[in-house]
## 1
Amino acid sequence: MPVEFLASSLLGRSLGGVATTLISAVLTVGLLVGVGLVAQRLGRNVFHRLEERIFRRLPVARGIHRAVRQLFDLFFTEGGSHKAVGLVEYPRPGMYALCFITSREPWRLDDGNRGQLLSVYLPTTPNPTSGFLLLVPKEDVRLLDLTVNEAARIIISGGSVPSPGRHLRGAAGSDAVASIPHPPPPRRGEMR
């Protein structure tokens, strides 16, 4: 054991198993605290670049890491008008699930009946990075007055950390997302 070897070289005698374990635990905690302090000082960008460099070299993990990173960036970075929390009937009528509205620009379905579909991401509990993309009729999505962080806390905890009073508040003015303004269509030749 390296700690036992180091202690016996410095002290000139062997330590017992309990002492070696305690020294190992203290060194491990010290290392973690040190890495945390360096991370605070240097900022997250250095670690993000290092993380990207490492995962870029791993063939299978590269695709998974990129998808998970994009999902986290989508929901948990500051700013951005796409962040909204909604409620949809799922998996059957009468049961509801929290969802994240990923785009306010609706999909158009050419069936004549329910022509506008909204992209919503339905996360799973307790790991919100796995979930389902659902295209839901715009009028069937209820906008909630919850932040993404509040909704994520509810989802990750399995509902045991609810919003105050266990009351889901609809957004001011409307039950459905139909009244949410969405960006104008792109101009000719302009890409989104």
## 2
Amino acid sequence: MPKRGNAGEPAKTIERAGKALHDDIGPLLSAAGLQLQLIRMDFPETAEQVRVVTETLDRAIDRIRALSQELAPPDFSKHARNSSRKGTIT
């Protein structure tokens, strides 16, 4: 008979994915944006192209931030929800 997993495992996997997006992917994209700004400073003739790419990168960062918060809400939000269910907010 196959072994059944814990019912909470999918939720934990989703939360880990959200944290990975926030903690790993987000900073990588931010670093890429900083590198683009350095290119723009070193090669002013690339300013328009860097601006377009940076805007796209910023939109990607915003979407990843929103998705990561949806998948793994900040601890404060979890704490507030749990406390409100108990009738107290600390």
## 3
Amino acid sequence: MTYSSCPTDIVSAPVNVVWSLLTDPAGWEKVFDVRIVEIRPRGPAAVAQTVYAESGPSFLHLKVEIQFFKIDSAHYALDLNVRLPFQLMVYESLSCVPLSVEQTLVNYRCDFSLPPGWRGVFMRIALRRKFNTGPADSLRRLKRAAEERYALTRA
């Protein structure tokens, strides 16, 4: 059972500012709702790099494992596989399209794979709203961080 969410937004910052945020997993705590535990290997985003993180309320320690499996720097695109608790898998594809010197279109596609059987049905019912609001919230956070970073360079 799958569910897709595809938010898109225009960010008022150059594509290199947005791309630098996406390809710096060590800095994701400042952008996304995630706490980084470990990055293997350390450094900027690379194919086969795995980010171990936690999400949700800090007392729950919900483990998240993110693996980069495609990075196309020339076209500002990257693909990730995300493993969440309760056998929930997410294929994420992000692309950045420069619209002008100071604007970037960000496309964010999330394909959620739910576990089979009653667990998948339960998760689809219980998390239906979160499947749309979660990716949209992540895109909003990225937009805010990129625009704030760009504003600092112009000040």
